[in-house]
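G., the chain you wanted modeled:
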Amino acid sequence: MIFCSTGAYGHTYPLIPLALAAHDAGHDVLFATADPFDTELKAFGLKTARVGLRVVDALDLEPGSHLDFDAIARMFAETLPRAVLDDLGPLLAETKPDLVVHEAACVGAFFAAKLAGVPGVCHGFGKVDGFVTTDPAAPATTELLAAFADTIGIPYEGLAMGGGGDPYLDICPPVLQTPDLLAAPNRVPLRPVAVNAKDEELPAFVRERRRERPLVYLTLGTVFAGIAHEVLAGAVEGIAALDVDLLVATGPALDPAALGTVPDNVRLEAWVPQSRLLPHVDLVVHHGGSGTTLAGLAAGRPHLVLPQGADQLANAHAVTEAGAGDWLSGEEFSPGAVTAKVRSLLADDSVRGAAQRVAAEIAAMPSPEDTVRRLVRIADEARS
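Predicted structure as tokens:
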């Protein structure tokens, strides 16, 4: 089996649990993605191949800023698919896999599998209509993808978010997912599992802290912390005003030193093993990225979402509608508003109960190990 993802944390890490389950079941697994994610995957014991570009590198090739909607559309609909197609096509011809598991935004892998005649399975990373309904770049991306598909002779309508006709592995629990996808015949539910490399440890601050007061975890993910530095700083100010401990993960896009001197109840880290951290926290304050949203809910933790772009607004609405948290729009955001929301959420047992109900729904979804057996059946049926 070949797994292939877009070169970004939020697109690569959701595929790791299934790839590991396939590897542990004795299948020959190759994970194809961009540098340096191919190197990171080796820490999980997976064989890797370098395919495509990192999202940030692909954006650098586009004229315009990283927040320009036309540049984002060209990146996802032309630059990234072409880079993956150019690299993955020869790899498929050489390895002749039985199956390609392509991440939903990695449309180049969908195209490459179709051109090679290899059966494909699409692996989602969150709420399927997130980009389509809330991202201003989505209409242009759809139009450009259709044109790109036409140039290579592949019938294709719309974004790959619904699998492009392939079986669609949906890691979003039903309570959050759009009804149209829940009714789709190609939907295959799969439990989201947060992972970290085995040698990553919790910060000493978490292991050694006194537990008399709540622990709040704040992150804007691996991309938006650098773009929304002022939002992160304002959130730190607002949360630190309360009698809580605050752990902030700035991610690779922002040096923790950029936040300057912080109060004594705040700890700054560039990176934390999120899957190990979440069971220890009382509230997750974040940007609404699909990975953090699903990981926090799988741990039964309430959320305060500060959406910045992409699919984050859709995730913020979904969390709120499930009763598992709240959100602040850009117009509402201020340190004082964050203080008020965090204080309210920490005191609200109903929100905590709703988050735990979502966690129970996630726990009842088919495991990666169960889903590997489904993948084998899909490959066998394609050969017969």
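The chain has two domains: 2-192+365-383, 204-363.

Shout if anything looks off.
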